[in-house]
Amino acid sequence: MEHSCEAAVITCIDFRFWKKLIQFLSTQGLESYDLTAMAGGAKNLVDGDTREMVFRQLDICTGKHEIKKVYLINHIDCGAYGGSAAFGSSEKEEIKLTEDLNQAENIIKEKYPSLQTVKLLMEFDQTRVLK
Ligand SMILES: [Zn+2]
Asked: At 44, which CATH number?
């Protein structure tokens, strides 16, 4: 069996979202990927105290499994952010989650310049691919 895969997926542990994520990824034609689930998903790249832990996973994904892409996921009402209530409004929540996805993307591009990135913002009723 081939020992490489297409992508790494960095997502949250939240049970309300990871099953939907796996379904969504299959609709995108993604067949094989390494899955890292940590509370906060992409937030773990933005936070200096957890970034190295994500890098340790990605070093294996790139070194052993020759991934070409990283999927970065954030979701609405994430406990690692204090839930939706912590933001004051859904607009502010979306702005912060999007900012963190953009920052996580920049961090990936700096450390792993050859990798493509895909940013997903998950809501209860939809998953959006961000530009
Ligand atoms: Zn979460």
From this structure: 3.40.1050.10
